[in-house]
Amino acid sequence: MKLNLKNSVAFFDLEATGINISTDRIVEISIVKVKPDGGQEIYTKKINPTIPIPLESSLIHGIYDKDVKDEQTFKDLAKDIYQFIGQSDLAGFNVLKYDIPLLVEEFLRAGIEFDLDKRNLLDAQKIFFMMEKRNLTSAYKFYCGQALENAHSAEADTLATLDVFKAQIERYQGEEMEDLQGNKLGVIENDMKKLHDLLNEKMVDLAGRFVFNNDGVEVFNFGKQKGTPVSQVLKDEPGYYDWMMRGDFPLDTKRKLTQIKLRGFNM
C-alpha cells in the first residue's frame, strides 16, 4: 500500500559498537527516505567509529575494525547525513529507545543541533509489540510472509522495516491501540502525525529519563525521584541539576533538563 504522507519519512537503521548511547558509536547507517509521491532514496554508509569495535558487536553485525578503518567518521559525514534526512519524519524498528537517541547523540557530538520537535517519530517495533505482543525477523515473517535474508545488514534491515511498517498500517488501520497495561490510546490511521502521538504520548527525552505524567507534567522516570515533577526537584534540590549535568547521561537528556530549568526561571 502507499503511505499517506504529508512529509517525507526517513526509515533508518544503525549498526554500532554497542548499546550505550553515551559512549558507543555508529559503524554503519542506512536510510530509506520515502517521499509523499511514493518515491524512495537510499543512503548507506559504513563509518569509522574512532574507537575499537568489541568482538561481541562484530559477531552480531559482521563489521570489524578492518572494515571501517579507512572510512570517514560520523563528524566527516554529519552534514551530508543531516542534509539527506532534511525535514523528514523518522521511522524504523526500535528507533525510539536506541537508533534515534544514538543518532541525535552523534549529531550533537558533531556540533549539529538535530531538532526533533517538529518531526513525527514512528517505531514499527512499538506497533508490533503493542498489537501482537516479538524482533525484526519475526515481524517480517509475520507481516510479509517471508524469511528475512541478510538480517543485521543495515540496508536489508531498513528495507524490511519499511515493508513491515506499511503492512502494519494496512493490517491495523481503524483498530484501537492499547498499551501494555491495557489502556486505550487511540485508533491507528494512515497518518504520520496521529501515529506519532499514539507512539510517543509520554516521551520527554529520548532516553526516557523523564516522562509526562497524566497531567502533562514532566516527571523523573528513574531513581529516588521517580514520579516527582522535574521542576519541583530542581527548585527544592538545586544541586540535582549539577549532578545530572556532570553525570553519564545522554546529551539530549541534559538538553531537556536545561530547557525545563530555564523555563522555570521565566515563569
Tell me about this structure.
- The longest helix has 19 residues, at about 155-170.
- The protein has helices spanning about 55-60, 65-70, 75-85, 95-110, 125-130, 135-145, 155-170, 190-200, 230-235, 240-245, 250-265; strands at about 10-15, 25-35, 40-45, 90, 120-125, 175-180, 185, 210, 220.
- Strands 3-2-1-4-5 form a five-stranded mixed beta sheet, with helices on both faces. It has a two-stranded antiparallel sheet with strand order 6-7.
- With about 270 residues, the chain is of the alpha/beta class.
- Helix 5 (about 125-130) packs across helix 7 and helix 6 crosses helix 7.
Quick tags:
globular, single chain, 9 strands, two-stranded antiparallel ribbon, 267 residues, alpha/beta
Specify Rg, calculated over alpha carbons: 19 Å
| SS-based class | alpha/beta
How far apart lie the N and C ends? 48 Å
SSE arrangement, N to C: EEEHHHEHEHHHEEHEEHHH
Largest sheet: 5 strands, mixed
DSSP strand count: 9
Q: Spans with pLDDT under 50 lasting ≥5 residues? A: none
Query: What do the pLDDT scores average to?
Result: 92
How helix-rich are the residues, as a percent range? 40-55%
Shape annotation: globular
List the helices and strands and how they pair.
Elements: E1 9-16, E2 26-34, E3 40-46, H1 55-61, H2 65-68, H3 74-85, E4 89-92, H4 95-109, E5 121-123, H5 124-132, H6 136-144, H7 154-172, E6 176-178, E7 184-187, H8 192-199, E8 210-212, E9 218-220, H9 230-236, H10 239-246, H11 251-265
Parallel strand pairs: 1-4, 4-5
Antiparallel strand pairs: 1-2, 2-3, 6-7, 8-9
Helix pairs in contact: 5-7, 6-7
